User: Fold this.
Amino acid sequence: MRIMHYTGLIFICLLAFIWKMSEAAPYISVKSNSRSSSQKLINGHLRTLYAYNVEDDMNNFGGMMSHHRSASFNSDLMSPGQQRNLQERLMEIQK
Assistant:
């Protein structure tokens, strides 16, 4: 009778251990948004000195942590090439 009692207890502990180990990790999702802009009156016209928006999205969907960033930049005073360069720098993910 005692052997059966210990066997049942060991079996229950083993099932509890297997069940606990098979649980999936929690899903993590972090979103961040940063924006800033500045305008100035130049020769009677309101001009955008800069306006940027950076969005970050991090999650572990599928079991692996992934990080995506999007950015936009606008300025009435900078050339299109300078704006593209600055937008690319804003999109770089610091590691």
